[in-house]
Design goal:
This protein has 421 residues and is an all-alpha fold. Helices cover 74% and strands 0% of the residues.
Amino acid sequence: MLTIALVLGFDIPELNHSTGLKGFDLFKVIQETFSSKGAGVGLMIMTIGGFVAYMKHIKASDALVYVSMQPLSIIRKYPYLATSLVIPIGQLLFICTSSATGLGLLLVASIYPVLVNLGVSKLSAVSVISACTVFDMDPASANTARAAELIGMNNVMYFIENQLPLTIPLTLLLMVLYYFSNRYFDKKEGVIKQEAVNKEDFKVDVPLIYAILPVLPLVLLIVFSKYIQLFSFSVELDTTTAMFMSFLVAIIFELIRQRNIKKVFASVKAFWEGMGKVFASVITLIVAAEVFSRGLISLGFIDALVMASQHLGFSGVGIAILMTLLIFAASMLIGSGNVSFFSFGPLVPSIAAKVGLSEASMILPMQLASSMGRAASPIAGVIIAISEIAGVSSFDLARRNLIPLSVTMVFMLVYHFFIIG
């Protein structure tokens, strides 16, 4: 697509450092994508992949499952209820972590084995984990910051006054939809239900204190987040750093338990092998998806959608609904909520003034639709990452998410524009 764009006279996405020759710039796009994804989100994903592998190797995941099975045993007969309860909890965590891919992988490392051992299918477990990231409403997120800037509001006030009142009923609806859709599709697709693990039969041969290790990165990120001020000075902790800190703690645990330095440091190889495996499967897919989205952008895909929305003679509410649906579709095709929203968002102030809608009322569903569409995209970074680590197809995961998200999208538009006005 990038080559076709050059042949047709379109400009390819701007590069940080052009080679000076457009033909060579096609390969420079791949190099810069590898550099940006590998150094930032790529390193984070690889670190989490290595951490997950090490947790399995030292059987800390087994300890977490065993401990979690104790309180969850009361709803063991209702595994799909347990999966639905993950959604509001995960959404609260998403507000604290702000990275969809980071949170998704953290939940795969911690809650995913618990859900599978309760008896749900892998795809059902990972679908509700992805559902935790469908509402991008962290005050510090790029989309929230941009939406608040466009309508002249403070980020936190936009979050409290606009996002929360709409996302609370939407989250409750998602819980119900995922409960029934996961149960229905597992049965329809002939998925053999995982045999639930009885806590009496499930034994672990490591100390139960190991159960804290898989969730330690999540605890560190929450405790040292900007929302919890424990110290008089500022402490900033990112996901990758939290992973390495937790990895060191796990090694110390192993040294205390094994009392064999050579054996413990030999086991560290599992961490690096896990990182390498994730690079081969996940990072390369993410880079390919990024180049694919750049190809679509180069061919004028986003520009065409923007022009089409401007020239259709709908009413104010009609235009707002159309643009919301276009953003949802664009996020699905491109795999990025930021690209679609940043393309359509700047149109809101001028359009809202012309059609008699408030800027906040128009931009809110558009902003939420961008992250909802991302969760239904098989090439979105978060979908690729969590599906690969969980061992399911990203296309199957996107299809599993499509119906609950589409129904929620319709409900959001009706509720927002016609019920609460």
